[in-house]
Design brief:
43 strands, six-stranded mixed β-sheet, 11 helices, single chain, alpha+beta, globular, five-stranded mixed β-sheet
Length: 682
């Protein structure tokens, strides 16, 4: 494989990255033509045949085993990924765009597990649902195909021509930027060998979001002054505020209102995670992870705005690792967690950026008390202008490297943050399976518990073991919180458990919880008011809690779960735009003359009066009603639908795509406003 990689595939990457758009097609054509005369063609051919072993693996999102040799009229794309890897997640939107733009390209996945927990079929299925992955995925849990092909990095994407020959290998997040251009040119080159056949896979593993109130909750925050528990309900793209005194949902921050009695604050997010609340400012800070921004929400006035970050990027893997610009001008990548701290009478946000493996700082000035300060003075006499966003720890390399100089240290997907009473920040460093400690006075970064203390490049030093310091072994910890009397609680996600760490002795031990226990817990927080530990039990779609005093008793702990009041007309994430609406609310009624493909992501987007709403079609409904909330008079409406459907042609079922945009004219709008509804037929 090394020979092919250096002689062929790196040459291809060099071509695509070096030539202009006008020159590129000719250069890629020359490259593809040269493969037939490659001096070691038999090596390339035999290497490509190894992919035929994929048919021996178990496939998800498909009712049948998949044989690569059945697709000799297709360009085939195979994504080797694992669900713990942020770089793999960054590539997913690109792959979905390619699937939409080039529907005749066959897109497959091969899940090649890094952690033992990722070998579970149930956990892989949860990841497919969590990230809306609908294409067939093979389970290479023992890395058989991975090792046979000599794959060296997550993600790696292979491109096959209609003869089953590997014609391209794109290694890592950055190189995947060249994938679309290569696919587009390859389709032209092999045009005579390709068919327009759309291949449909009958999913035996149905692609449904959970029919529960919560969907993959991740991070938590507790406000003791108001007795409020804030929940990042990430799978539903919303943040909830639960009033512990009244035992009811008080705030709902989302694109759609689902709880009738809650205070609704409209805000469109994409997988929100880290949250921090400042009682003095009555402000909630939210890490809007896959929109790559930090949001500010004022609960008293319902004001929402982007505090820092520039949003999504057209290119992936190419990030600013230093920062220093004003908040709205400075990009960040996948902010996962954040913590608010006071310094010099001002507010500072520390942000764990998983996408660049760094810790960033936003200097949030409280102007009412800080007008005398020109800038923030941070460690090592670093002067930071107010309102700026800057990296303060981590060099951007994915490693487990400690250093007295914070910008020389390296992290590996830092996913959780907490402070103790001695100016220390503890970091749940997921991919190195460690808890790290960063001193907030001088920025020095040290190892604390777990991982490999000798080899900074060993990101496989994980396990499930109690012990002191580096003798203890964790598996992809996702969060950490500080408990008074010098203890830490760790959400040891891939061991499906919690751990207690004595910060004085560094002894780490598992907290035993009665069955059925936890399933990939992603968040923990302390509630001193009620003497509780709150847990975001992500794959169980629930918020659990236990008494803090029980943690220190040598017995199995009974886990309780938060029940959000069922009387509040909750609606699940797929159907929330079409259920439980009042009779006088305007709606668009859509009907199809064909059957939607249940395996596909059939979705709609409506822009009404300059406000956009999105949702999924419910496959078994004859008429799909989309209700238009808070619209007394509609002055403009645009509808975009993206659906897959099946038709019978020559005794064969053929799957087709319909991507259509409709704009209501003046007469249509008059009818809608007068009658309260408008019918559209396809």
């Amino acid at each position: 494989m090394e020979t092919l990689r250096f002689e062929l595939f790196q040459t291809l990457t060099s071509i695509i990255s070096s030539y202009t758009e006008t020159e590129l097609e000719t250069k890629v054509f020359d490259y593809l033509q040269s493969l037939d005369n490659y001096h070691d063609y038999e090596l390339l051919k035999n290497h490509s045949k190894k992919l035929q072993n994929l048919k021996e693996l178990e496939w998800l999102n498909s009712s049948q085993q998949i044989d690569i040799t059945d697709f000799n009229d297709k360009i085939v794309l195979i994504d080797f990924w694992t669900y713990c890897c942020i770089n793999c997640l960054h590539v997913l939107p690109l792959l979905k765009r390619i699937q939409s733009e080039f529907p005749t390209v066959l897109s497959l996945g091969c899940h090649s597990s890094k952690f033992s927990n990722e070998k579970s079929k149930c956990n892989i299925l949860s990841a497919l649902k969590r990230h809306l992955i609908s294409n067939p995925v093979a389970c290479d849990s023992n890395l058989e195909i991975w090792n046979d092909l000599g794959i060296i990095c997550w993600p790696t994407i292979l491109v096959l021509n209609p003869d089953g020959l590997i014609i391209g290998e794109f290694i890592g997040e950055v190189n995947c930027n060249y994938l679309r251009d290569f696919i587009k040119i390859s389709l032209k080159f092999y045009d005579k060998k390709l068919s327009s056949r759309i291949i449909s896979f009958d999913q035996k593993n149905k692609f449904n979001m959970p029919d529960k109130n919560l969907s993959y909750p991740t991070k938590l925050a507790f406000n003791s002054d108001e007795n409020l528990l804030f929940i990042s309900d990430s799978g539903n793209n919303r943040v909830l505020g639960f009033d512990m005194t009244q035992k009811e949902l008080k705030f709902e921050i989302s694109s759609h209102k689902c709880f009738e009695k809650s205070t609704f604050i409209e805000c469109c997010m994409n997988w929100p995670q880290g949250i921090a609340y400042d009682n003095q400012l009555k402000t909630l800070f939210i890490a809007d992870t896959f929109n790559n921004v930090i949001r500010l929400v004022k609960l008293d006035t319902k004001e929402t705005k982007i505090l820092c970050g520039t949003g999504t990027k057209n290119s992936i893997g190419m990030y600013d690792l230093k920062g220093g610009k004003k908040g709205l001008d400075q990009e960040i990548s996948s902010p996962w967690d954040l913590k608010l701290m006071d310094k010099e009478n001002s507010k500072i946000l520390l942000i764990a950026c998983v996408g660049t493996h760094q810790i960033w700082l936003y200097s949030y000035q409280n102007r009412s008390i800080d007008s005398q300060f020109q800038h923030l003075i941070w460690w090592k006499n670093l002067n930071i202008e107010w309102g700026s966003l800057i990296c303060v720890a981590g060099n951007g390399k994915e490693r487990n490297k400690n250093n007295a100089y914070p910008l020389q240290a390296s992290f590996a997907q830092p996913s959780g943050l907490c402070f103790d009473d001695c100016y220390n920040c503890y970091i749940a460093d997921a991919e190195s399976s460690t808890i790290r400690i960063m001193n907030l006075r001088d920025g020095s970064v040290k190892g604390f518990v777990g991982g490999d203390n000798l080899d900074p490049d060993n990101l496989f030093a994980y396990g499930n073991q109690d012990g002191k310091g580096f003798e203890a072994k964790l598996q992809h910890p996702m969060d950490v919180c500080f408990l008074k009397n010098n203890y830490l609680i760790v959400a040891d996600a891939y061991n499906n458990c919690l751990r207690l760490i004595d910060t004085k002795t560094k002894y780490c031990k598992k907290i035993f919880i009665q069955s059925p226990g936890l399933n990939e817990p992603n968040g923990v927080c302390i509630d001193e008011n009620n003497n509780l530990l709150w847990i975001a039990d992500s794959n169980n779609h629930s918020i659990s809690f236990l008494r803090i005093d029980d943690i220190f008793e040598e017995k199995e702990i009974f886990l309780s779960r938060l029940e959000i009041d069922q009387s509040k007309d909750t609606v699940d994430s797929v159907r929330k735009a079409v259920l439980n609406k009042s009779n006088d609310q305007k709606f668009i009624a859509i009907s199809f003359s064909f059957n939607l493909n249940e395996s596909a992501e059939n979705f709609w987007t409506i822009k009404v009066n300059e406000r956009s709403i999105k949702g999924l079609f419910v496959n078994n409904e004859l008429v799909h009603k989309i209700f238009l909330e808070n619209c007394d008079t509609i002055v403009s409406l645009e509808l975009q639908i993206n659906v897959a459907y099946c038709q019978m042609m020559e005794n064969n079922s053929v799957c087709r795509l319909l991507n259509k945009k409709l704009v209501l004219n003046e007469n249509d709008l008059i009818y809608l406003n007068q009658n309260g509804h408008f019918n559209i037929n396809f």
